[in-house]
């Protein structure tokens, strides 16, 4: 399965009408602390937007709602895996991305044959408190050797300026949150990412 080399996480579907017309093709909806009704509205709206612009929507965590609402891709963290019904997820035809931070988590993830494996944080991140030290470019290379043909997503503290080194280290996809969402000009910053990632497609 072909995944775009740039992957944006948004915390609200309202970002999508701003970002998708620019050419964003891979987006995760990651919402915390919302009611089930709010989640349904957000997911349904995100589905409509992504369908209109031909983008791949990935739902973070809420696998039961994703199945019910007809989504086709979810992302689970290690804690999410503890409670998720992988059989139900696979039976529903959902593709699966999984977060990893150490070799034990990577082994667990690969046993589930995911569509991609994410490694983070590559650099220090302000988004949330992390129990793991920054992985650095060396670990990106090591992870890529271990995952083989499985697409590797690098996440955490990444910027346009740091991205070339991480692509060179072996990341197939770079995922960001704050570098775009917290930027003074989110659309302009996203455009920089899209231009950079387009050059990766040319290389590949």
TrEMBL record:
It catalyses: 4-methyl-5-(2-phosphooxyethyl)-thiazole + 4-amino-2-methyl-5-(diphosphooxymethyl)pyrimidine + H(+) = thiamine phosphate + diphosphate; 2-(2-carboxy-4-methylthiazol-5-yl)ethyl phosphate + 4-amino-2-methyl-5-(diphosphooxymethyl)pyrimidine + 2 H(+) = thiamine phosphate + CO2 + diphosphate; 2-[(2R,5Z)-2-carboxy-4-methylthiazol-5(2H)-ylidene]ethyl phosphate + 4-amino-2-methyl-5-(diphosphooxymethyl)pyrimidine + 2 H(+) = thiamine phosphate + CO2 + diphosphate. Its cofactor is Mg(2+). GO terms for molecular function: metal ion binding; thiamine-phosphate diphosphorylase activity. It is an enzyme of class 2 (transferase). Pathway: Cofactor biosynthesis; thiamine diphosphate biosynthesis; thiamine phosphate from 4-amino-2-methyl-5-diphosphomethylpyrimidine and 4-methyl-5-(2-phosphoethyl)-thiazole: step 1/1. Keywords: Magnesium, Metal-binding, Thiamine biosynthesis, Transferase. GO terms for cellular component: cytoplasm. GO terms for biological process: thiamine biosynthetic process; thiamine diphosphate biosynthetic process. This is Thiamine-phosphate synthase. It comes from Kiloniella litopenaei.
């Amino acid at each position: 399965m072909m995944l775009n080399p740039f992957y944006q996480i948004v915390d609200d579907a309202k970002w999508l009408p701003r970002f998708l017309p620019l050419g964003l093709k891979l987006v995760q909806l990651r919402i915390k602390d919302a009611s089930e009704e709010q989640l349904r509205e957000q997911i349904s709206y995100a589905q409509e937007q992504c369908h209109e612009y031909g983008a791949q929507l990935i739902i973070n965590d809420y696998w039961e709602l994703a199945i019910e609402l007809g989504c086709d891709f979810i992302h689970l963290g290690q804690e999410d895996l503890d409670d998720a019904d992988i059989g139900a997820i696979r039976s529903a035809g959902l593709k699966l991305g999984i977060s990893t931070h150490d070799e034990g988590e990577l082994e667990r993830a690969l046993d589930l044959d995911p569509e991609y494996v994410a490694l983070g944080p590559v650099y220090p991140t302000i988004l949330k408190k992390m129990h793991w030290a920054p992985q650095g470019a060396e670990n990106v290379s090591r992870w890529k050797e271990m995952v083989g043909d499985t697409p590797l997503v690098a996440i955490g503290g990444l910027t346009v300026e740091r991205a070339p080194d991480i692509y060179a280290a072996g990341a197939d996809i770079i995922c960001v949150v704050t570098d775009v969402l917290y930027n003074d000009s989110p659309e302009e910053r996203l455009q920089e990412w899209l231009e950079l990632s387009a050059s990766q497609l040319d290389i590949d």
